[in-house]
Fold this sequence. Notes:
It is a single chain. By secondary structure, the chain is an alpha/beta fold. It is 50% helix and 11% strand. The chain has helices at 6-17, 24-43, 55-98, 130-133, 136-144, 163-176, 202-216, 228-231, 233-248, 265-268, 275-282, 295-303, 311-319, and strands at 120-125, 148-153, 184-186, 220-224, 255-259, 287-291, 325-330. The longest helix is centred in the N-terminal third of the chain and has 44 residues, at 55-98. Strand 2 (148-153), helix 6 and strand 3 (184-186) form a beta-alpha-beta unit. The protein has two domains: 6-98; 116-330, 3-Layer(aba) Sandwich (Rossmann fold), CATH 3.40.50.10320. The chain crosses the membrane at residues 76-99.
Amino acid sequence: MMAISKTEINLRRLLSAAPNQQNQSKLMHYVATLREQLEQLSEEKTHEGLPRVTKTKVNEYYEKIEAVASKIAAQVMAWFVVALSLIVIWVASLCKIFFGATFSFKAAILDDGITPHKKNVLFVIAHPDDESMFFSPTINYLTTNAYNLHILCFSTGNDDGMGSIRKDELHQACAVLRVPLQQLKILDHPNLQDGFGQVWSHDLLTEIIDEAVTNHDIHTIITFDNYGVSGHSNHRDVHHGVLKFLKIRTERNIKAWEKLVSLKIFRKYCGPVDWLSILSAKRHPSKLIIINEQPWKSFEAMAQHLSQWVWFRKLFVIFSSYTYTNILCRINP
């Protein structure tokens, strides 16, 4: 009986291991190696000059190798179809936004009998760039419809020692978003400094919010939800400050809306196609949907924050659903 060559032994071992290999790149390498080994095996000769393996055996190995290769092809095709489908939906959604086919249910967010140009809306945020990263669809909608916008920013974002730079960047972003600079207030309070480890006093926040509401005759407040969109502790403290203000100042009859968070990371970074949130909001009258008809303005506004305009934030602005859609929920203290 003819001894099995080293090449055939290695080929059999690799064929045996291939079905258990889950890493697709390694599996592709297996197939390439198996094909090379089969070609080498088919050319091997005995001392008498005869083929070491029969043509039937070569064909048998070939069929087994191609079966492994077809498994890879099927997986690649499945991923390709999924990716292509997502791209088509994504592009179609962008076209819907860019070419004005807006949603009729995006809502008269502040419809309570007061004309828009007399309606004073206060955005309460924690850091420069929050307005562009998270709230730009709502800001664009309100400025387009002649609402009178104010922004209260509780810090200069000085965690990295660039507070003065970030303050100037917020001024430039507000110019892009058409928020009057005299209606922007940026605080640099010693007890309200930027940072994950910084705990902001809810009493202090409430006091400052109360002052802003009184000075500017604010009718509506828009801010973060309980999670703070990104989970940042400063964002969450701002929410609790607004909530406490609403509980204490019930006689003012101030409306307040919080920005909802997509709980699943896919929905958070699916760009303009967060249809699950949109369909969910349609079934709940306490939720409002704001579609950004000018997403390019959101890009331009965020680009003003040059100190923060690094590659991963560029990707965030492109793929984040917050660039294209805001789902707001009424705060009931």
